[in-house]
Design a protein that fits this description.
With about 325 residues, this protein is of the alpha+beta class. It folds into 3 domains: about 5-55, no CATH class; about 75-180, no CATH class; about 205-330, Beta-Lactamase. The protein is built from 11 helices and 7 strands. The protein has helices spanning about 5-15, 30-35, 40-45, 75-95, 105-120, 125-140, 155-200, 205-220, 245, 250-265, 310-330; strands at about 20-25, 50-55, 225-230, 235-240, 270, 280-285, 290-300. The strands form 2 sheets. Strands 4-3-7-6-5 form a 5-stranded antiparallel beta sheet, with helices on both faces. Helix 1 packs parallel to helix 3 (about 40-45), helix 5 packs antiparallel against helix 6 (about 125-140) and helix 5 (about 105-120) runs parallel beside helix 7.
Length: about 325
Amino acid sequence: MSGRSIAEEIVIFARQQKITRILVGKPGSSRWESILLRNPVDQLVRLSGEIDVYVTAGEQGEQREAAHNIRPKEIQLSDYGTGLLFLILATVLCFLMYPYFQLSNLIMVYLLGVMLTATSCGRGPAILVSLLSVLSFDFFFVPPRFTLTVEDAQYIVTFIVMFLVALVISHLAARMRQQTEVARLHERQAAAMHGISRQLVSTRGIEEILKVAVQYVSEIFDCRVVAMLPDEKGKLNVAVGDPSSVLQKDILKEISVAQSAYDTGQMTGWGTESFSTTEILCVPLHAANSRLGILALKPGDPERFLLPEQLQLLESLAKQVALALEVERLTASGIPH
């Protein structure tokens, strides 16, 4: 689920599903954090109405790393450069407006630059531009000009308010950008699931099914993919795809990564607990109790590969392919399904 408020989304979902009891963990935040930040559990209790909410402290469990350590997107230096460009353009425009407009109008120009930076480049560059906008406005336009000193104390309040407003704008614009990306991803997921389901229904033959899988996965996740199937002894061999495009560096190690994914039935390789330093991700294809093969993915750009929201889509696609392979196997063996 996605939405503006954790508590609101949980309550809406609970009422839609006619859930009458909710069990939540007690927050581990400090007293100051509870005062300064909105607590989702308190909100949940307040909004729950007729739904019973049970809050438990639980027991201290063993600390474990996540099964999939998704590497976050890094903000590119070019984003900061773009933000500085917006700042320069805003300053130039303010110089042109200065003889004809009040200083309050110039503030609006700088805020516009912050908003454009937030929507185009992200929160980090927007915060930097927010700070530089205040300094630029003070240095270039507030009397005495071309110094950072301030004659009128009221401008200090102006600077503080301007900076806070810029931060709020950057935060809202960054959230809007994130929600837009999530909406696009959901649309892409739905189209991908529909497309591959339609293709698999009309496709016959194990090799043809794997070709469909390799094509869809490589396009959706912008990566190179090979499909591997086991022989009679359970040893994996490449069935579809170009192995030289995926297995490039330490081939023996990468094959062992694929074999481990097949043997354990768990994702192995890039971003997982097993062989996390390997730049390939091996996704098992299993249906019911049958192990059918694996898909080996090599990202074109490891730093931007597999967002957290995409992991569920990858697992769903793998299940779709595995189910189609299982049906084909049962059909070939003459077993009714």
